[in-house]
Design goal:
139 residues, rod-shaped, mainly alpha, 2 helices
């Protein structure tokens, strides 16, 4: 059997309900809209670029502030360590000086007691009118 050729049904051209002027006007409007979309797209890209720049600027400032705060904290910690060392040194010196003072006071007290005893022993009992046994001394 011979093959049949397939035939494409022929279409009649659709008749346009628009006039040539209306088509031109519509093409002009489409062209205007495409321009507006392109301008909006460019503006959006510009805005995004500005936002990225601002974001990077803020991040840089935040990093700078963070480093500044960290440096201040290190400085404060170092000063606190110095103050602790100074306080410990002062407390050690105070302890030494207090011990010296107490020793001096003890030595002076002992001398006063010795002097008082020797003075009392040198007193004539008859004139004072008391007995040595009635006096009590600590020491």
């Amino acid at each position: 059997m011979p093959r049949k050729k397939m035939q494409t049904p022929s279409k009649e051209p659709e008749s346009s309900s628009m006039t040539h002027e209306e088509e031109e006007e519509m093409q002009h409007d489409i062209s205007k809209l495409q321009d507006q979309v392109q301008q909006l797209s460019l503006k959006q890209k510009g805005t995004e670029s500005k936002m990225d720049g601002l974001k990077k600027g803020v991040e840089a400032k935040m990093d700078c502030l963070k480093k500044g705060v960290e440096a201040k904290m290190i400085d404060v910690e170092a000063k606190m360590d110095d103050l602790k060392t100074d306080l410990k040194t002062d407390m050690d010196e105070l302890k030494i000086n207090m011990n010296k003072l107490l020793q001096e006071m003890g030595n002076k007290g002992e001398r006063v007691l010795k002097e008082t005893r020797s003075e009392l022993q040198g007193v004539r009992w008859g004139k004072v009118g008391m007995k040595l046994s009635t006096l009590e001394f600590d020491g």
